[in-house]
Known about the structure:
The chain is an alpha+beta fold. It has 3 helices and 3 strands. The N and C termini lie far apart (45 Å).
Amino acid sequence: MNGAAEGRSAGGSLAVVEVAAGVCGHKTTATAESTGAYNVKVQLESDCPQVQKSALIKAVEVAAGLALPKDVTMKISKVSADDRAEKDKKD
């Protein structure tokens, strides 16, 4: 993505979102560049249609100044029905 960063226009804001989906190994890269008031140029490269929308939205938000760039963390685990029932009782 260094090439994309070097190619941005002066004064424009460039945001890059890179997603490694997990076990499947699919990768998604969304690039969004602010090209002026209310205009964002986007580019999306992905093996996985399920991740595309989320990555694209985050890239546009950052490029347009609607959000600050911050990594997103997802913790994925498997919980048994018994464990879930016990947790629900406590809540």
